[in-house]
Amino acid sequence: MSRQEPVREEAASIHHWYDPDTNPINIAEGEGISVWDVDGTEYFDFCSQLYCTNLGHSNEAVIEAMDEQARKIPYVSSAKRTPARERLANKLAKVAPDNLSHTFFSVSGSEANEIAVQLARERQDAPTVLTRWRSYHGGTYGAGALTGDPETRSTIERHAATSGAAKFLPPIPKAFDTDDPEELARRAGEHLEFVIRNEGPDSIAAILMEPVAGTSGAFPAPPGYFDHVRDLCDEYDILLIADEVITGFGRCGDWFGIQTEDVNPDMITFAKGITSAYAPLAGVIVTPEIASFVQSNGFDIGQTFGGHPIGCAAGSAALDVYSDGVIENVAEQEATFRTGLQELKANHDVVSDIRGRGFLWGVEFADPTTGESFHDPRVDDDENPVASVIRESSDRGVLFGGGRPGFQIIISPPLIANQEAIERALAVLDDSITTVFDNS
Fold first, then answer.
1. Which residues in the chain are classed under CATH 3.40.640.10?
2. Helices 419-438 and 385-395 sit at what angle, rounded to 10 degrees?
3. Domain 27-58+329-438 class?
4. In the CATH hierarchy, which top-level class contains the domain 60-322?
5. In CA terms, which of 167, 187, 208, 431 is 20 to 30 Å from 113?
6. Over the stretch 47-71, which tens digit does the pLDDT of each residue have?
7. Residues of CATH 3.90.1150.10 domain(s) within the chain?
């Protein structure tokens, strides 16, 4: 890929998650797992921008499919049918869990989660949706109500109340005071049942959760936990919604993260990786029973750009690429991440935990003397050394993401990254941790 001299523009746009104290890099070009800023500096993109450029930045098959669709017809009303949507919906039915069959397309992950919740409430005739503390399900008012991340919720609720959601604790050791996976699964499952019974099962439409936590820490559930959740949903007639906005399309080593748990949800929400972020697209995949409910009763809600034909064409092409060895690469390279991060933890006593699955990993930091976080943005106003590690890594040419809360780093490269690239990125992280904490 030849890189041209960038054209510099005045900053008339306001970027999302705006912080007046930061100045994000100005990215002009990308190829494979790399991006270049306007000065021509190369970075390994080990955050996939926002956990979404799963196929890297230059997949010709996806780009060509978008171009072909734009030349046929660039837009069709979301209230009408078009071959691009039908083709992608049929492909999704083939790769989703066997019990899911129909797709309602949307624009973003936030809107997909809101649609899933609306479908669940209508289908179950119940108002409440249970989600986990430390979860992130979107930044709109409805999705913000579902989100358990305090930073997001406090921003959204500052001037408007949100309702219809109740929270339960995630299955993490600190929440249940045990490091034993079997005991953790049991205690977390019993806690969830307590919340269900306390809220009143008849008032609960659905439980919505990520199979592997995304920005809240990349923590997978202990073995058996999702089986317990599925059993509770069946016992109390509650729908199980898997938020796969981050974990979907290969990031955890299978088509969907919930498939690594061998549990069938009633709905899957998706976005991000469906097109490798080459075009905005999202949606909800549902069971035949839920599809039949909509087909019988109607669903008088829509979005102008839901299921945009160019996005659907990109999605169909991306699914073909995922099938051609990309997901297998994630499964094969997971051991590279696991080994490298275990070595990282052994090298630095400030690294308190590493966890993850596939190409989604979290690195948590804590004071080795006290076990407490060096900085918790929910209660601390001082400088965050974890943010300094991210900046130092960026200065060394590798981009990582910040977790929620900010005492952790999230690692999520494009799914095409090879062993050499992974080892190089982890070496940069290793050196950056040394630089920040040895000088602090």
1. 60-322
2. 130
3. alpha beta
4. alpha beta
5. 187
6. 999 999 999 999 999 999 999 999 9
7. 27-58+329-438
